[in-house]
Amino acid sequence: xxxxxxxxxxxxxxxxxxxxxxxxxxxxxxxxxxxxxxxxxxxxxxxxxxxxxxxxxxxxxxxxxxxxxxxxxxxxxxxxxxxxxxxxxxxxxxxxxxxxxxxxxxxxxxxxxxxxxxxxxxxxxxxxxxxxxxxxxxxxxxxxxxxxxxxxxxxxxxxxxxxxxxxxxxxxxxxxxxxxxxxxxxxxxxxxxxxxxxxxxxxxxxxxxxxxxxxxxxxxxxxxxxxxxxxxxxxxxxxxxxxxxxxxxxxxxxxxxxxxxxxxxxxxxxxxxxxxxxxxxxxxxxxxxxxxxx
Amino acid sequence: xxxxxxxxxxxxxxxxxxxxxxxxxxxxxxxxxxxxxxxxxxxxxxxxxxxxxxxxxxxxxxxxxxxxxxxxxxxxxxxxxxxxxxxxxxxxxxxxxxxxxxxxxxxxxxxxxxxxxxxxxxxxxxxxxxxxxxxxxxxxxxxxxxxxxxxxxxxxxxxxxxxxxxxxxxxxxxxxxxxxxxxxxxxxxxxxxxxxxxxxxxxxxxxxxxxxxxxxxxxxxxxxxxxxxxxxxxxxxxxxxxxxxxxxxxxxxxxxxxxxxxxxxxxxxxxxx
Lengths: 294, 273
Fold this sequence. Notes:
The complex is a heterodimer. By secondary structure, chain A is mainly α. Chain A has helices at 3-37, 54-59, 63-95, 101-109, 116-127, 133-140, 157-182, 186-194, 199-210, 212-228, 231-236, 248-258, 262-293; strands at 40-41, 49-50.
């Protein structure tokens, strides 16, 4: 083998060396190390002590774990319905030549660029029971009995937090569908119209099937984002009152970094990871199929 | 569409738009009022006095004069490094056939969807061991590394669409690969760079959890964890909290107003091919 060929074979590895090493040290390595930590007892100061599956046994008997799991599930279900329906509706509406559609798009899109911390703080103010806009508005229009402690009532606190996430998510879904609508074959839509399909039929039978690839992406993103949910909960409620708005990500943070039960926190992280992995693998399979096709 | 249907659609969209803007308008109004006025007369009362005092208070006493510059000190190097490194990796993944190529690509793509929690404790420990816990560098390192996944994914797919012939002729002329990457590939990849950079700027700038885990001293905090501190300091003083929150969004709002096109392009590039 001559020198030139060896060089040619080495080239891609040289290009990849630094990014891959950094990625392995800060992402892939830590991911694997978390599995080890989940099998230990560790307070963050002394060395981790191996305890086998003790953390998981304790976790499966912990009521806060189940509350968090149910809350994450609720988050997923809401995210897979309200923002997708609203986002698609708005995208369909703004895809036509409506006057000022650019301005409308920007308004729905604006919350996306705000950090979740900012969204959480602003909405905490809207939710403020005594002085906030929402209860103030309800008082002003004579609906006093609808007033709530939006973030202090365990029955509705989770929905109050998820509402903020929805507010931010709709614009994102709208953007993805607007892009998807660009590739919808207008000829098919026109042909259906000639054949006498009304606008509802055209939407469900012609447009929506063509948007299926976008819908898959939107659904995967919605699930992954719901499982990642942390910032809003951390800023608005810290999982309270009485853990009623706890989600897995926040539960893990509190156990690991507030209670210094780091092995236990790692066990929660592993469970969260395993749930996410199902959807990551599903998505990667899809990417792999596209790779072989194109 | 019939004119009535059109009118109904337009009305629904206008109502939704107004509803969507309410939180932002409320925040703006709140920031211009005084806390005493709000606590005394409620939010819905006509403002007694308009003042910018709460902005000043959030800026100086609330510490935003420190938090906001910190955010830039963290975001800009991380953004630069992740773009540079991912463009190297993406070039190799897009242009060469070699063992492990698919595996690496899937590791990068899959990594973008990880829940952060699976990395928190090990990265916390790693940073501590490397002596970069509670430093800007520690935060820059994790942002650079984590964002490599998304950037490599998008840039690699974009580079796949660049015609091979452009590079082949340079290669035949004896051009070094690194020169081809720098002077042929990178200029052609500009649109993807603009899109990814805009998106990544907002993501890194808006990060909360990594700053929470890796920065302890308030003088090094970026604006997100800084705001959480501010909220603790001014528990009932909503005008200061909201003013701080609004100031914290100015950089990303500027990006949004001027680079919205790229931001949207980035989102759609990342979600489809």
